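Supplementary material to the annual report.
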Amino acid sequence: MASEPREYLRIERLPHVWCPGCGHGMITHALACAMAELELDPKQTAVIGGIGCSGRTAFLFDMDSMHTTHGRAVVFATGLKLVRPALTIVLALGDGDAIGIGGNHFIHACRRNLDLTAIIYNNAIYGQTGGQVAPTTPPAKKSTTSPYGNLEHPFDIARLAIAAGATYVARTTSFDFADMVKFIKRGIQHKGFSVIEVLTHCPTYYGRLNDLRDPYEMLHTIKEQTVPIEEWDQLSEEERAGKIVIGELHRQVRPEFVESYYRLIAQMQRLQENSVDGH
Amino acid sequence: MREQELVQGNEACARGAIYAGCRFFAGYPITPSSEIMEYLARELPKVGGICLQMEDEIASLSAVIGASWGGAKAMTATSGPGFSLMQENIGYAAITETPCVIVDAQRAGPSTGQPTKASQGDVMQARWGTHGDHPIIVLTASWVREVFEMTVHAFNLSERYRVPVILLLDEVLAHLRENVVLPEPGELDVISRRHPERLENFKPFFDETMVTFGEGGRLMVTGMSHDEFGFPAQGKKAAEQLQRILKKIESRAEELAIYRAHYLDDADAVIVSYGITSRAVEESVRVLRAEGLAVGWLDLKTLWPFPEKLIRSCTEHAQYVLVPELNAGQLVREVERAVGGRVLVEHLGRLDGYLITPEEIAARVYDRVECLKGA
Ligand SMILES: Cc1ncc(C[n+]2csc(CCOP(=O)(O)OP(=O)(O)O)c2C)c(N)n1
Ligand code: SF4
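Predicted assembly:
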C-alpha cells in the first residue's frame, strides 16, 4: 500500500510531455491524491489511457498501465475488467477520444455499467493534433478547423453519460482541486460505471486561438462559467444560459455488469455439476 | 471408438477454441461467422468463460486485447466488413505482442459485397491490412475437423509467440456440416503462454514470456514504438524492437508451415491450394492421376508467414503450377515470387460467389500439360 500521491507516480519518468500551464497535470495530480487517500493497492490498480495529450496520463502511474488506441480505452478496459474483476481501473480520456471517435464505445460502456472510473479531460479541443475542433467545442469558438468560429452544437458529456446509463456522474473544473479529488474518489468507490468530467484548459491551442493565452486567466474563465448544482436549481432558464452546472449530478444503483456475468457463470456451473451428479 | 457427429464449421471453430482454453470472446454479429459467437455465448459461461456481444468489431478486438492482458486466452470472429474494422487493433496487438485469435469467415467483397457468398478475397488483407510493417500468422482450413484443429493451433501459436493469429475460413466451410470425430481432450497439444521465472528486472517486451495485469509487474503497454520496458522509443531503438518482432515470426516461416503434400515426387504439374478450394483440388487430382497425368498437390494450411522455401522445393521439377483461389489473384503472386520465373505459374479464380469446381481445375491442368508437351 502507498499513501503519498507521489508513491503512485513514476517520478523517474518526469518531466511529462504536457505544455507549461496545461490543465492535464492538475487532473493527474488529483487522481494521484485520490488514489493515495483511498490507499489503493498499486498492484491491484490500473490506469488505461486513450490517445491524445490526456491519454499520456497512463505513462505516469507506477502500476499496470495501458495506452490504447484512439477512442477505444473503455473497451480495452471492459475486456480487462471482466477477466480481472479485482482490479481497480481508472480511464484517462480526452473529450475527443471519449465522445468523438470513441462516442459509440462510451455510450455503450455507460449502458453496460462495468465497475470502471472514467475521467474525461475536457479541454473542448483536440490538443494532441494541434487544436482542431472537438465535439465539445462551444459554438462560435475558434479552432484550426473552425477558423471562422464553430458552427456545430456541442455535446454535454455529463448529460450524455447520464442519458446513456452511467451510474455515477460528476462534473467539475481543473480549478476546483478538492472537488476533483473528491469526485474521483467517489467514482472509484462507486460500484458501476463512473464518469468524472473535468472542464480544463488547453492554453496552447484553445487559449491561443480564442484570446485566452494566459493559463491562469483561462482557468478563471472556465470557473466563472460554472454554477454548482446546489445553486443551479434556483436559477431561471435565462439565468442558466451560457452557464454549466457542476457537482455530483447523478448517482444510481443498478446491477454491475461484471458481477452479473460472474453470477451467470456460477449459476451455469452449478447446473453443470448437478447434471453430472444426476448421472 | 468415439462416434461420429454432424458438426458445422463454425461450431467446430467454437469448440476448438474452448478446447484450446479460450475463456474470453467478444464479437459483433455478421454472417457467415455469427454461429461462433452464438455457440460461445451458450457454452463459455459453463466453463467459467465470458462471451460478450460488443457495439462493433473495433470494440470486439479492443476487448479481446484487454482480456488477453488480463491473462485470458481470447478470440473474436467476423467476416470481411468487420475484419476491415479490426485492422486498427490488429496492429496494436502486433506491436504490443498480445496473444489473440481473430477468425475471418470470408465472404465475397469488397464492402458488403455478395452477402453471403464464399470468397478467399481477404488473404492479402490478413497479411497487410493494418498499417506498417508487422508480424502476423495466418492459418486456414478446408474440412470441418481441420477447422477445429486449426483453431487450437491458432491459439497455440498465438500464446507461444505472443502474436495475433488470424484464421481464415469462408462462407461454405463456416456453414458446412460434416460427419466428424472431433479430438478428445488430451489428443491435441494445448500450449499456454510462458511466464518469466521472476518478476524482478524482467523485460515485458523482450522475449516471448509474458506477465499480465494484476500480477504486480507495473506493466506499461502502448501502441507507440517502445523499448523492452514498454516506454516510448524512437529511431534506432524503435527499429531494433520492430526487427525483433518481425524476425520472431519470419525467421520461423518453415517451422510454422503446416501443409499436406500429395504426389509431389514425380509431379510435372503442381497445384497449390488452400482453404475451401482444396476440396475441389482433391477431386481434380484424383481424376487427373487416373488419366495418367503426373500431377502433384500442395495443400497449404499456413498462408503467412509464406512458406517460400517449401514452394520452391515442391515446384523444382515441375513445368506448370496452378493456384486456384476464390479471388482475382492473391496468393498466386507469392507463389510466382517464390518460383522466381522458373516455371509457368497460373491463377484460376472465381468472383461470382460460387466455388471453383473440380472440372474447371482438371480441365485447366489437362490443357496446359498437353500444350507444354506439344511445345
Ligand atoms: C484513428 C485515429 N485517428 C486520429 C488520430 C489522431 N489523434 C491523436 S490524438 C487526437 C485528438 C486528441 O484530442 P482529445 O481526445 O480531445 O485529447 P487532448 O489531446 O485534447 O487531451 C487525434 C485526432 C489517431 N491517433 N487515431
Ligand atoms: S496541447 Fe493543450 S492539451 Fe495538449 S499538452 Fe498542450 S496545453 Fe495541454
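DSSP finds eleven helices and eight strands in chain A.
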